[in-house]
Specification:
This protein has 205 residues and is mainly alpha-helical. The longest helix is centred in the middle third of the chain and has 14 residues, at 94-107. Helix 3 (24-34) links the parallel strand 1 (19-21) and strand 2 (39-41). The protein is 65% helix and 3% strand.
């Protein structure tokens, strides 16, 4: 049996796998036998199939069973799961609190606690100084729950987070828009945004 015949005999098995095909000739043969979207063909990169395969393996879940084993939330109701995640945050275990709130939002997306979970996910990111993630999570909160009474607080937190990563021109736009679009901003909100604008030397509008 030659290589071509071997590849042909494996067609049914390979169709269900992510395949990294090393060097040109086998890639051409596999393409001719049965091209599939899960086949990655290598040309001019001899010896790198293991490196590419490792990178792909690290970037995706290994299997469903692994995903189950990595579950952090205990079995129970949505409210019990939420309280578990909140307890982790109150104990300052922010790493596991982050994981728990993220898992909660996947498992209980329609729960009445989803707004609280999204809010606390943003706060937990912020506490870990993951400012970009915090801004994204809190912006999603504002988008999905625009009538939530915490809207002004989360908008201010987005601005505070952006100070730590946004380029000055983008940051100044964020700060100006925070004042422009906020309905009935509190005195505390206005004072803090103006302080950040002055601190970052944003030009007056």
């Amino acid at each position: 049996m030659n290589r071509y015949e071997l590849l042909k005999s494996l067609k049914g098995i390979l169709n269900e796998k992510l395949v990294i095909c090393n060097i040109g000739l086998p890639s051409q043969e596999l393409y001719k036998i049965d091209d599939q979207p899960n086949y990655f063909y290598m040309l001019g990169s001899m010896g790198l199939s293991s490196s590419i395969g490792l990178g792909l393996a690290l970037s995706i879940n290994k299997n469903v069973e692994d995903g189950k084993k990595q579950s952090l939330l205990p079995s129970g109701t949505a409210e019990e799961n939420y309280n578990y995640a909140l307890d982790l945050a109150s104990q300052l275990d922010f790493v596991n609190a982050e994981k728990a709130f993220k898992e909660f939002l996947i498992l209980h997306k329609e729960s009445e606690k989803s707004a609280d979970a999204q809010y606390w996910l943003g706060r937990v990111y912020f506490a870990q100084k993951k400012f970009e993630e915090a801004a994204i999570a809190l912006a999603e909160f504002n988008s999905v729950f625009p009538n939530d009474p915490r809207f002004q607080e989360t908008t201010l937190l987005i601005a505070e987070a952006a100070v730590n990563f946004a380029p000055q021109d983008q940051l100044c736009d964020i700060l100006n828009q925070s004042l422009e679009f906020m309905i009935n901003p509190s005195e505390k909100f206005i004072k803090r945004i103006n302080f950040l604008k002055n601190e970052k030397q944003c030009a007056p509008e």
